[in-house]
Amino acid sequence: MLSPEELSELEASLLPSLERHHLRLLAHSLRSLQAAAGRRSGPLPQRAELLAWALDQPELQADPRFCQAFLDQLQRAASQLARIAEETAEPNQSVETTKQATASPLGLGLADLVTWARQQADRRVANINPTEASP
Q1: Does a structural domain hold residue 30?
Q2: For 64-97, what is each residue's pLDDT tens digit?
Q3: How many structural domains comprise the chain?
Q4: DSSP string, 18-73
Q5: CB-CB contact of 17 with 58 (8 Å)
Q6: Which residue among 21, 67, 69, 134 has the highest number of C-beta atoms inside a 10 angstrom radius?
Q7: What local confidence, expressed as pLDDT, does residue 82 receive?
């Protein structure tokens, strides 16, 4: 679960609303994956580990279909977080350090997610055709 301070940090990013929404979803997913794994580093939890965690959540116990859909979404977010961890690894780090960073999306912080979201927004803005841009 994100703290009120973390939510404030995400909202203060000055990103467009779509990016902030996506950022909140990723941040919540990251915290859920960290909770399911019981750690903030190391490999992502496997489906069985996620299922065991989910079955301990009263909100998810009440609706098995929602629980399955939620787990599917967490796994999709996990894939995206793994890509983000790979993209945000320092390019001048040693190969061993880079491998460790890409293997540990659970180690991402909110600052990493904000930086990634800013880069995504900047790319979208850079790709706008100047004739399509509003005055």
Answers
A1: yes
A2: 999 999 999 999 999 999 999 988 776 544 444 4
A3: 1
A4: HHHHHHHHHHHHHHHHHHHHTSSSSSPPPHHHHHHHHHT-HHHHT-HHHHHHHHHH
A5: no
A6: 67
A7: 94
